[in-house]
């Protein structure tokens, strides 16, 4: 039987939950059934080394390579080659990015300019999957020939701040829309009622055996823990969404109460400068550390005492699932999908979205060994792998 031709589209594999989710998915695909291509706008990033050897990464067209050069170099090279229309769009793309105050809609309104260096892909696919919101979906609809097109929404759509009037034109042309939790699905259906019959939920694929194996690869002492020091870990892009300013405030309150705290953040992003200033303003340089990206974060999770997620909104956090697999006591803020992942008091604690509540819940763990043991025991007895979710995807491919 001839293998089905699949195409996955994602802007990059630089970092992030969606990107990690795709890598996990690709490692669980049955390559005896599928030929898989991967299209990205950027071929550098943290997870590039983890792409399975069976996956063919499609080359970028020369025109896009020129488009993505620094501004003046890009314009010069495009004009030399007579690409006047693309040079014009490069100028408009830059101006819109520079002067657009709304970061959430910027990617939507600049897509028509970003898309000009791309011809339609020549190959026709059985299924094409735009694996993230916005650009991945737009590319899938505008530039790909496929018998079936799938869009993937990894987040609470209403919290993204995007223009739904723009997106509805794309969602109408998609055959299936995958969300990562029931709550995300409900929010999406309420926002786009005309598309609700297309929506399926597929949880992010996490593999306990792989995570435990990678956790064991790291040093047993990645933190060099000092006597009586309490290590807290958070993972996420340095972005407004993750609420790390709440973590800094909470860390300061715990220090002021006399606790020896080291709070580490694994992740990178546009908020690094602001967070660094906030850390300095609170004299927390020795207590609150921005560790940057880690290709293997699992030894850090394994050695931390607690995992804390201070997000303002999430779809379904892979980092929380990973912390659960490594049996870490977890505190999350009460974002809209928190209860999809944490049963308060059973396998973690849910705090209100302010630093006082986060601080109180961390103190609750520090002071209560019995509560810690209860959370750890409950996690140890819970089936946490989601490898079988791949079967839902096979159903979409064949349906």
Brief description of this entry?
The protein has 399 residues and is of the alpha/beta class. It has 18 helices and 13 strands.
Class of secondary structure makeup: alpha/beta
Q: Major sheet: size, sense and barrel closure? A: 7 strands, parallel
Q: What's the level 1 CATH class of the largest domain?
A: Alpha Beta
Average pLDDT value? 92
The percent of residues in helical segments reads 40-55%
Number of helices, where a helix is a run of at least 4 consecutive DSSP H or I residues: 18
Q: Which stretches of 5+ consecutive residues score pLDDT under 50?
A: none
Strand order of the largest sheet: 3-2-1-4-5-6-7
What would you say the CATH architecture of the largest domain is? 3-Layer(aba) Sandwich
General shape: globular
Q: Any idea what the CATH superfamily of the largest domain is called?
A: Glycogen Phosphorylase B
C-alpha-based Rg, rounded:
22 Å
Q: Any idea of the CATH topology of the largest domain?
A: Rossmann fold
Give a count of the beta strands, DSSP E runs of length 2 or more: 13
- Beta-strand percentage? 15-25%
Distance from first to last alpha carbon: 17 Å
Number of domains: 2
Q: Which descriptors would you attach to this protein?
A:
alpha/beta, 18 helices, Rossmann fold, seven-stranded parallel beta sheet, 399 residues, six-stranded parallel beta sheet, single chain
Description:
This protein folds into two domains: 152 residues, 3-Layer(aba) Sandwich (Rossmann fold); 173 residues, Rossmann fold (3-Layer(aba) Sandwich). Helix 3 runs antiparallel to helix 4 and helix 11 packs across helix 16. The protein has 399 residues and is of the alpha/beta class. The protein is globular, with a radius of gyration of 22 Å. The longest helix has 16 residues.
């Amino acid at each position: 039987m001839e293998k089905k031709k699949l195409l996955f589209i994602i802007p990059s594999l630089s970092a992030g939950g969606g990107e990690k989710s795709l890598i996990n998915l690709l490692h669980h695909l049955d390559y005896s059934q599928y030929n898989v291509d991967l299209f990205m706008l950027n071929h550098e990033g943290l997870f590039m080394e983890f792409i399975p050897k069976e996956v063919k990464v499609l080359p970028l067209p020369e025109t896009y390579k020129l488009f993505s050069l620094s501004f003046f170099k890009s314009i010069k090279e495009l004009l030399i080659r007579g690409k006047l229309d693309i040079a014009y769009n490069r100028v408009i793309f830059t101006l819109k990015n520079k002067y657009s105050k709304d970061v959430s809609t910027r990617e939507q309104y600049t897509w028509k300019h970003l898309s000009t260096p791309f011809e339609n892909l020549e190959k026709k696919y059985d299924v094409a999957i735009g694996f993230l919101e916005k650009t991945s979906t737009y590319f899938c609809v505008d530039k790909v020939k496929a018998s079936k097109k799938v869009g993937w929404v990894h987040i609470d759509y209403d919290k993204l701040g995007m223009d739904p009037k723009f997106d509805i034109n794309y969602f109408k042309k998609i055959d299936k829309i995958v969300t990562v939790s029931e709550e995300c699905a409900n929010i999406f259906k309420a926002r786009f009622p005309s598309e609700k019959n297309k929506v399926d939920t597929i949880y992010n694929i996490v593999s306990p055996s792989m995570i435990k194996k990678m956790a064991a690869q790291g040093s047993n002492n990645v933190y060099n823990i000092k006597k009586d020091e309490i290590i807290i870990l958070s993972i996420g892009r340095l972005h407004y969404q993750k609420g790390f300013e709440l973590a800094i405030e909470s860390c300061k309150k715990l220090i002021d109460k006399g606790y020896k705290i080291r709070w580490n953040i694994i992740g990178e992003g546009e908020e690094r400068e602001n967070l660094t200033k906030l850390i300095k303003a609170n004299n927390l340089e020795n207590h609150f550390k921005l560790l940057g990206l880690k290709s293997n974060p699992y030894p850090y999770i394994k050695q931390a005492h607690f995992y804390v997620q201070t997000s303002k909104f999430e779809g379904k956090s892979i980092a929380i699932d990973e912390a659960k697999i490594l049996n870490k006591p977890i505190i999350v803020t009460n974002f809209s999908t928190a209860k999809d992942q944490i049963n308060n008091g059973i396998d973690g604690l849910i705090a209100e979205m302010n630093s006082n509540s986060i601080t109180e819940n961390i103190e609750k763990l520090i002071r209560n060994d019995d509560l810690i043991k209860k959370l750890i025991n409950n996690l140890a007895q819970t089936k946490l792998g989601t490898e079988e979710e791949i079967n839902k995807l096979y159903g979409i491919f064949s349906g």
